[in-house]
Amino acid sequence: MRIAMIGTGYVGLVSGACFSEFGAAVTCVDKDVAKIDGLKRNEMPIYEPGLDALVATNVAAGRLSFTTDLKSAVASADAVFIAVGTPSRRGDGHADLSYVYAAAREIATAVTGYTVVVTKSTVPVGTGREVLRIIREARPDAEVDVVSNPEFLREGSAINDFMRPDRVVIGCDSERAREVMRELYRPLYLNETPIVFTTRRSSELIKYAANTFLATKITFINEVADLCEALDCDVQDVARGIGLDGRIGGKFLHAGPGYGGSCFPKDTLALVKTARDAKAPLRIIETVVEINEARKMQMAAKIDRALNGGTKGKTIAVLGLTFKPNTDDMRDSPSLVILPELIKRGAKIRAFDPEGMKEAAKMLPASIEMCEDAYDAMEGADAIVLLTEWNEFRALDLDRVKALLKAPVMIDLRNVYNPTDMAAANFHYTCVGRASVAIK
Question: Does pTM top 0.70 for this prediction?
Fold first, then answer.
């Protein structure tokens, strides 16, 4: 099978590399000349564990290539995947489909013979129909089917998620297209991966419904964490107690500063807008969006309260800037709200992130001092704020930490450490949804 993957962002690059690992001949296409030249040198535009090795292996095997020439890539393809960005549209929160539709117009000029056009991007219900209309309007003679095949990749574990998925969702309206998609995903059939065939419209909605449900779980446990603090309960015990119920599950029940990243914020907002337009509002999801936005400001206030006399004039060491570990993605990271608010309150910020420093420098205030490592950030600081739970922050040398700080104060917004252990180490320790501790 020959695949053209339009877009070499997170979804397109990972999907293209993984399809080539399955044995398909994949050509990844992008208009960004510098990005394509970098990929040809095996320079990844994103940080994803194992991706550089996977790309190098399949390029060497001749199964994976990169080009800016969309026409040649599409002309020889059996399936063309649209994997371009669908950010929130400025002004109204709807998904911006301009890149998807632009790709459809270019694909229309290039297809030869029967071709399956697959929307891999996260798109609202009805987008596939519009993609088909655009192609047929430009090329009435084109022999194409349009299929929806949403991605369910988690940043930091995307390769495993593609190779060993919980399920694959395929929305198509013709048996011919279904057979092409079956062939593409044949290696997963051998692993008995559930393949969900449905209509194109239902497939488009499945992606949004899945992401908004997970965002709701995060928001739910964050609300419960606030209640735990008010009632002197432990949110981690509560989360474990309910998560062991098979109907609920333990994943995404981790209290923290709110969800972020490339998917949940824009997808929850887009589904809210879609539901309102359909006159079937999703009140739960509307509330989830509101609570998550407010959550970040609440965390800034929590940090302020944890420091005697507030943050004004204080130096704070911030560990972690990306929205989650094992990625360099800063999109909608809680740090983008929390840190500017701390600066507004008069704090000086010294920060470190293992992979996100380059992206963070573009998006955060220039006054933030970017440090060489976690301990460098702590030197002379009044407190530590643990904002992203990278593994290297899970076993800090607490004696060294105390020697570097002006006072042994840690605000742990990811509940990485145990309050009892921190009390024994003589730290003023503030966490989320559990009893904080102070030096006796």
Answer: yes
The reported pLDDT for the residue numbered 191 is 83
229 and 92 housed in the same domain: no
Same-domain check for residues 178 and 301: no
Annotated catalytic residue 263: yes
Give the chain's mean pLDDT.
96
- 250-264 tens-digit pLDDT: 999 999 999 999 899
d(CA 389, CA 440) in angstroms, rounded, equals 27
Q: What is the CATH number of the domain that holds 135?
A: 3.40.50.720
Tens digits of residue pLDDT in 90-121: 878 889 999 999 999 999 999 999 999 999 99
Question: Dihedral of CA 395/400/405/409: which sign?
Answer: positive
Joined together, the tokens standing for residue 383 give 């407190």
Taking alpha carbons only, the member of 335, 305, 334 closest to residue 428 is 305
Residue 436 has a pLDDT of 72
Does 439 have pLDDT greater than 70?
no
Average pLDDT over residues 267-284: 95
Q: 232: buried, middle or exposed (CB in 10 Å: 19+, 13-18, 0-12)?
A: exposed
Element (H, E) at 51: helix 51-60
Same domain, 128 and 223: no
Query: Which of the following is catalytic: 18, 28, 228, 263?
Result: 263
Strands of the sheet with 168-171, listed across from one edge: 64-67, 25-29, 2-6, 79-82, 115-119, 144-148, 168-171, 195-198
Cα–Cα distance for residue pair 296/359, rounded to 1 Å: 20
Provide the Cα torsion 57, 61, 63, 67; round to 10°.
80
What region does 67 belong to: left with phi over 0, alpha with psi -120 to 50, or beta?
beta
Q: What is the rounded distance in angstroms from the CA atom of residue 24 to the CA atom of residue 369?
A: 46
> Which residue among 198, 217, 237 closes a domain?
198
315-319 and 195-198: which strand pairing? unpaired
Over pLDDT 90: what percentage of the chain?
95
Report d(CA 403, CA 407) in Å as an integer.
9
